[in-house]
Amino acid sequence: MRLCVFCGSKPGDNPAYAEAAAELGRKLAEQQIGLVYGGASVGLMGAIADATLQAGGDAIGVIPQSLVDKEIAHPDLTQMHVVSGMHERKALMANLSDGFIALPGGIGTLEELFEIWTWAQLGMHAKPCVLLNVADYYGQLIEFLDKMTQAGYLKESSRSMLRIASNPLEAISLCLSGS
């Protein structure tokens, strides 16, 4: 089994974000669950990959050539897939994974999460999608998603496809329990 983790290429302003990324990486390795992620050596991406590898787990990166050229590709992964662009990256990450977890990140992280969640809503996959709300980073987003549901723009059946976890072990458990 492999889980895809979307997360920031920066550490963010709260040490809890990197701590959660490292804990998630260790827990994946302990449970012999492979990590699929964006392939970078920086930010939360580097933190989760390093922790996974240090705990004896497998870390598979998928990174566009343009980011390899900027020298942010992780040099020590179990596998590295270099792709031509972001669309190919997301498609390959989805194909390699059995579920998805989003840690804190920026618009790229949100875009990846929302696309994979949309694919689930459209029936393109039935893999679990989990938002890991570290230190309430996503609190206002969760409130907004609930408002979208109340306003009639997001069906409750679609809203419930995005599970919310408060810690790394819960995120993994939600992925293992299915969509």
Characterization of the model:
With 179 residues, the protein is α/β, with parallel strands linked by helices. The chain has a single domain, classed as Rossmann fold (3-Layer(aba) Sandwich). Helix content is 47%, strand content 17%. The chain has eight helices and seven strands; from the N terminus they run βαβαβαβαβαβααβα. The protein has helices spanning 15-30, 43-54, 65-69, 86-96, 107-121, 139-150, 156-159, 168-176, and strands at 2-6, 34-37, 59-64, 79-83, 100-102, 129-132, 162-165. It has a seven-stranded parallel β-sheet with strand order 4-3-2-1-5-6-7, sandwiched between helices. Strand 5 (100-102), helix 5 (107-121) and strand 6 (129-132) form a beta-alpha-beta unit.
Secondary structure elements and pairings:
Blueprint: E1 2-6, H1 15-30, E2 34-37, H2 43-54, E3 59-64, H3 65-69, E4 79-83, H4 86-96, E5 100-102, H5 107-121, E6 129-132, H6 139-150, H7 156-159, E7 162-165, H8 168-176
Parallel strand pairs: 1-2, 1-5, 2-3, 3-4, 5-6, 6-7
Helix pairs in contact: 1-2
Main sheet: strand order: 4-3-2-1-5-6-7
- Model regions low in confidence, pLDDT < 50 over at least 5 residues: none
Named CATH architecture: 3-Layer(aba) Sandwich
Shape: globular
H/E order of the elements? EHEHEHEHEHEHHEH
Strand proportion? 15-25%
Cα end-to-end separation: 15 Å
Q: What is the rounded Rg?
A: 15 Å
The domain tally reads 1
- Share in helix: 40-55%
Mean pLDDT: 96
Task: Using the coordinates above, name the CATH class.
Answer: Alpha Beta
Structural class: alpha/beta
